[in-house]
Amino acid sequence: MSETAKSKPRFPIVLTIATLIAFAILCGLGTWQVKRLAWKEDLLARIETLKTVPAIPLAQALTRADKGEDVAWTRVETGCRPVAPGASFPLVYGVRDGQMVWRPQIICGSDHGPIIVDLGVAEGLTGQVQPDRHGVFGYPSRVTGVLVTTDQLGGKEREGLLTDEAGKSPKYVLMAEATTPALPRVTPAPLPAEISNRHLEYALTWFGLAVTLLFIYAAMLWRRMRP
Question: Residue 150 has what DSSP assignment?
Fold first, then answer.
């Protein structure tokens, strides 16, 4: 009887705990991708709406933002008073259509206070690694564009943002669609040329891995515990 007891396989407690932890992580990643899917679908719907919605005054949009409303991806228009005429403003690194581009920014005085305006893509600098990082591109008298939050910008573009008079990074940036007058050497590019939405694919991958893990664990447990 004692020999039989000794030969009986032990239940793999440590392996079971490790499997449960891994299963929970995989399911968590899958759930996160499902949430990202809902966010991306809402974002794509907003961008699609932007193609036909009329612009509203910038001051009106920012007043709504001050009250806590999310005004990201809102088309706005505003007058642009030169804050620093003739000043040299930075070029911010970005990626568009798979290529390195450089985007000039200026600070416009508006009825709601100064706002950073991304003018678009600087012509002739696409693909350059180390261009002159500052340039004078002029001031438009009026800008129509799309408000985006700085969180929605790429990391390098967010790091290179101008700061306001208090030295703080802004919450919103106006991505110019059109300027009056049109500025030379700049092509407005407010929206990504293409936004991928593969979150459903990623979610199914994570959930599939979680199920596969359970099958592997069950098969291992059956082989180990069978008489």
Answer: G
